[in-house]
């Protein structure tokens, strides 16, 4: 599924115009992106949690520049238990 498919399906289910649905989806994703980038946790009930996880003291180097990589933040998504159960019940 891509953004266009998500917008189309959401517009169908809500009865909103596709343009309005697309603007809402983009706004929501930008808010989530901004919150996680600033170190905040975003919890969406029955869906999951987005967070930036800090990994420190890694003795790695940038392969192109050779500079050491000291601190790294990775993005984690932890699915809600109900979401996990739904995915596992359909497999």
Give a quick set of tags describing it.
single chain, 91 residues, alpha+beta, HU Protein, Chain A, 2 domains, 3-stranded antiparallel sheet, two-stranded antiparallel ribbon, 3 helices, 25% strand, extended
Would you kindly provide a written description of the structure presented here, covering whatever features stand out?
A hairpin with a 6-residue loop joins strand 3 and strand 4 (68-69). The protein has three helices and five strands. The protein folds into two domains: 1-40; 41-91, Irregular (HU Protein, Chain A), CATH 4.10.520. The chain is extended and about 50 Å long. It has 91 residues and is of the alpha+beta class. Helix 1 (3-14) packs across helix 2.
Return the CATH class of the largest domain.
Answer: Few Secondary Structures
- Strand residues, percent: 25-35%
* Unreliable spans: none
Query: How many structural domains does the protein architecture include?
Result: 2
Helicity level: 40-55%
- CATH topology type of the largest domain: HU Protein, Chain A
Indicate the CATH architecture of the largest domain.
Irregular
**How far apart, in Å, are the first and last alpha carbons?**
18 Å
What is the CATH superfamily of the largest domain? IHF-like DNA-binding proteins
Using only CA atoms, what is the Rg? Answer: 18 Å
Shape: extended
Element layout with pairings:
Blueprint: H1 3-14, H2 18-37, E1 42-44, E2 48-55, E3 60-61, E4 68-69, E5 72-79, H3 81-89
Antiparallel strand pairs: 1-2, 2-5, 3-4
Describe the structure in brief:
By secondary structure, this protein is α+β, with helices and mostly antiparallel strands. It has helices spanning 3-14, 18-37, 81-89, and strands at 42-44, 48-55, 60-61, 68-69, 72-79. It is built from three helices and five strands.
């Amino acid at each position: 599924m891509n953004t266009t498919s998500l917008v189309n399906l959401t517009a169908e289910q809500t009865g909103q115009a596709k343009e309005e649905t697309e603007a809402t989806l983009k706004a929501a994703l930008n808010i989530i992106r901004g919150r996680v980038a600033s170190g905040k946790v975003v919890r969406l009930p029955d869906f999951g949690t987005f967070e930036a996880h800090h990994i420190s003291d890694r003795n790695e180097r940038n392969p192109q520049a050779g500079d050491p990589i000291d601190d790294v933040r990775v993005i984690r998504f932890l699915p809600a238990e109900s979401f996990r159960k739904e995915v596992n019940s359909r497999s």
